[in-house]
Design goal:
This protein has about 575 residues and is of the alpha/beta class. The protein folds into four domains: about 170 residues, P-loop containing nucleotide triphosphate hydrolases (Rossmann fold, 3-Layer(aba) Sandwich), CATH 3.40.50.300; about 60 residues, Orthogonal Bundle (Helicase, Ruva Protein, domain 3); about 120 residues, Zinc Finger, Delta Prime, domain 3, CATH 1.20.272.10; about 80 residues, DnaA, N-terminal domain (GMP Synthetase, Chain A, domain 3, 2-Layer Sandwich).
C-alpha cells in the first residue's frame, strides 16, 4: 500500500476530532440532536482549519444509518463510502473548475432526483467564491426552494466575494485560525502515535510556522519526518529556512540600538546560510509586534501564548525603548515587508530599509527638546542671579579669566525666572467714585498701575497690553488703541477683557468697560541687521539653533506677519 501523508491520515472523521472549532462543533451537535438541519450552509475561514472536513462529517452524520445523538458511527456503509469518496449521495464539486453556468444547470437537473441510499442528497461545493456571476444567479432559485431531500454545503476562504443574495440564503459559520498551543498539542499527539522523534522546541517552531492552519502544520511535519527520523530545532531551521532565534534576537537588538554595522553583519550571516530574507522580514515584524504587546499590556503571556521565559526576554528588549519608537519601528517594518516581498534583490532592499530604521534611534522627541530648553533657561537664570556673576560682570580685569562656575549673560532679559512662591496679597482698595475725575486727569499713572497689577496675574497678557496706547478714560470706559498692524494682539486683549476689567474696578471704583480701537498703522523703518543681531544674541535662540543644527534665515516683526495674512 502506498504511503498516506499525515494530513490525509489524520483528517478529522468526527466532530470531536476537529481542533480549535469548539463553537462550530457545538452548533452542529445541537442542530443534529434537535433535528434542526437547514438546507444550505456556508463555511468560511482560513485555509486548513477544517471547513471541508466539517462538511464531510456533517454529511456523514446526516446520512449515518446507526447514528446515536450527533456523532456519525463511521462504520456503516454510508459513512465508509463518504470517507472513501465513493458515495453517490454526497457530491463534492470544485468551484474553481466548475464555475460556469452550464455546470450549475447540470447540478439543477440532478437535484430533483431522490438519494439512492441515504436520507439526504448533499452537495459540497469547495471554493464557492470562484463561481461566475451567471452561475450564482442560476443557483439562486434552487438554493432558495430546494427539494426536502437536498442539503447544500459551501466552503470558501473569501466570503466577501460571495454575493449577498447567496449569503442571505445560507446559514453562515465562520471557522477561526487554530491557536498555536492547540496545534502543538495535536502535533504532540500525532508524533507520539506515529513514533516520530521530535524535540519540544521543534514542535513549537512547526506550530508557529503553520500560522493557524492545522493542515499546514501536518504538511510541515511530514516534510520534516521525510528529512530526518530525529527532528531537532537546527534541522527544522535548515529545512524550512527559518532564522535561528539567537540571530533574530541579535538582529532586533541591533535595530533597537541603531547599530547599523552589527545589523548588516547579521544580514550577511543569514544570507550566507541561505535563509529566506522574506521570511526573516516577516519574523522581524512579528517580533517587534510582540515587543510592543509586552510594552503596553500586563497580560502578555495570555495574549502571545508564549512561555514565561520568552515573555521575560521580550520585556528585557522593551525596557530601553519607548512606545513612540516602537510605533515608528513597526510602521517602517510593515512597509519594508511589502518591499522585500516583491523586490528583485531582497538583500539590498532589506539592508536599505534597516538603514532607514537606524535613523529612528537618533531622533529626539519634542518633549525631550522642550526639557532641554527648559534646563538651559533655568541654568542661565541661576548664573545670572548669583552674586559671583554680578561681580565678574562688573570687573573688567577678570573678563579674561572668569571662574568656571560663572558666565556673563549678554542679554539677561531673555532668561525666564521660575515663578516665585504664591503669597497672599492684600489688594489696595479702589478709588472712591469722587476721585474718578482726578484719575482721568492723571490717566497715564493709572495706565501704568493697571499694567503692573495685570503683570502680577498674567505676565504674557500684561506684555500684550503694554503694546497698546491709552486713548481716553471716562466714567464709563477705558479706551485703548493698537496699531493697525497689531490685530493679533488686539484680538487677544478682547478675549481676555474679563481679566482686565475687574482690575480697572479695583483701581477706579467704577465698573469701566474696556474699549479697543484700531489706530492708523505707523510706518516704522527698522534696521533689519540690528534686529537680526539682537534676536541671534538671545540664549534661547542660540540653544534652538544648536539642538536642531540649523541656521537663522530671516527675522520678521509681528506687524509684517500680520500684513502677510
Amino acid at each position: 500500500m502506498s504511503y498516506i501523508v499525515l494530513a490525509r491520515k489524520w483528517r478529522p472523521q468526527g466532530f470531536d476530532d476537529l481542533v480549535g472549532q469548539e463553537t462550530v462543533v457545538k452548533t452542529f451537535k445541537n442542530a443534529l440532536s434537535s433535528d434542526k438541519v437547514v438546507h444550505a450552509y456556508l463555511f468560511s475561514g482560513p485555509r486548513g482549519v477544517g471547513k471541508t472536513s466539517s462538511a464531510r462529517i456533517l454529511a456523514k452524520a446526516l446520512n449515518c444509518m446507526q447514528r446515536t445523538g450527533s456523532e456519525p458511527c463511521g462504520k456503516c456503509e454510508s459513512c465508509k463510502s463518504i470517507t472513501d469518496g465513493s458515495s453517490v449521495d454526497v457530491l463534492e464539486i470544485d468551484g474553481a473548475s466548475n464555475n460556469s453556468v452550464e455546470a450549475v444547470r447540470e447540478l439543477r437537473e440532478t437535484v430533483k432526483y431522490a438519494p439512492s441510499g441515504g436520507k439526504y442528497k448533499i452537495y459540497i461545493i469547495d471554493e464557492v467564491h470562484m463561481l461566475s456571476t451567471s452561475a450564482f444567479n442560476a443557483l439562486l432559485k434552487t438554493l432558495e426552494e430546494p427539494p426536502p431531500h437536498v442539503v447544500f454545503i459551501f466552503a470558501t476562504t473569501e466570503p466577501k466575494k460571495v454575493p449577498a443574495t447567496i449569503l442571505s440564503r445560507c446559514q453562515h459559520h465562520s471557522f477561526r485560525r487554530v491557536a498555536k498551543n492547540e496545534i502543538k498539542e495535536q502535533l504532540k499527539k500525532i508524533t507520539d502515535t506515529e513514533k516520530i522523534n521530535i524535540k519540544d522546541t521543534a514542535l513549537d517552531m512547526l506550530a508557529k510556522a503553520a500560522d493557524g492552519s492545522m493542515r499546514d502544520a501536518l504538511t510541515l511535519l511530514d516534510q520534516a519526518y521525510s528529512f530526518s527520523n530525529d527532528i531537532t530545532e537546527k534541522e527544522l531551521q535548515s529545512l524550512l529556512g527559518l532564522p535561528e532565534a539567537e540571530l533574530l534576537s541579535g538582529l532586533s537588538g541591533n535595530i533597537l540600538k541603531g547599530d547599523i554595522s552589527g545589523t548588516l553583519s547579521v544580514i550577511k550571516e543569514l544570507t550566507d546560510r541561505g535563509s529566506d530574507l522574506r521570511q526573516i522580514t516577516k519574523e522581524l515584524v512579528e517580533h517587534f509586534r510582540n515587543i510592543a504587546v509586552v510594552k503596553v499590556t500586563r497580560d502578555a503571556e495570555g495574549l502571545l501564548e508564549f512561555p514565561r521565559e520568552d515573555v521575560q526576554r521580550l520585556r528585557d528588549a522593551a525596557s530601553d525603548v519607548g512606545i513612540e519608537e516602537l510605533t515608528l519601528f513597526m510602521t517602517e517594518l510593515l512597509r519594508l515587508e511589502g518591499e522585500v516581498r516583491s523586490a528583485v534583490n531582497p538583500r539590498y532592499t532589506l539592508e536599505l530599509g534597516l538603514l532607514r530604521m537606524s535613523f529612528i534611534k537618533g531622533m529626539t522627541s519634542i518633549d525631550d527638546i522642550l526639557k532641554m530648553l527648559g534646563k538651559e533657561q533655568e541654568q542661565n537664570y541661576v548664573r545670572e542671579s548669583s552674586p559671583g556673576a554680578a561681580a565678574s560682570g562688573g570687573n573688567a580685569k577678570d573678563k579674561h579669566n572668569p571662574p568656571a562656575s560663572e558666565s556673563k549673560i549678554e542679554n539677561p532679559k531673555s532668561a525666564i525666572p521660575p515663578e516665585p512662591p504664591a503669597e497672599k496679597k492684600t489688594e489696595p482698595p479702589g478709588r472712591p467714585a469722587a476721585d474718578i475725575k482726578s484719575a482721568a486727569a492723571n490717566k497715564d499713572a493709572l495706565w501704568q498701575e493697571l499694567i503692573e497689577r495685570l503683570d502680577a496675574k498674567d505676565h504674557l497678557l500684561a506684555c500684550k497690553l503694554a503694546e497698546a496706547k491709552l486713548v481716553n478714560l471716562t466714567t464709563t470706559e477705558l479706551a485703548i488703541g493698537f496699531n493697525g498692524g497689531m490685530s493679533v494682539l488686539a484680538d487677544s486683549i478682547k478675549k481676555n477683557a474679563s481679566v482686565i476689567e475687574p482690575l480697572l474696578k479695583q483701581l477706579t471704583g467704577h465698573g469701566l468697560k474696556l474699549k479697543i480701537l484700531s489706530l492708523p498703522k505707523k510706518e516704522v523703518k527698522k534696521d533689519i541687521g540690528k534686529v537680526k543681531e539682537k534676536v541671534f544674541s538671545e540664549p534661547i535662540v542660540q540653544d534652538a539653533i544648536k539642538i536642531f543644527n540649523s541656521s537663522m534665515i530671516n527675522v520678521k516683526s509681528l506687524e509684517e506677519n500680520d500684513d502677510d495674512k
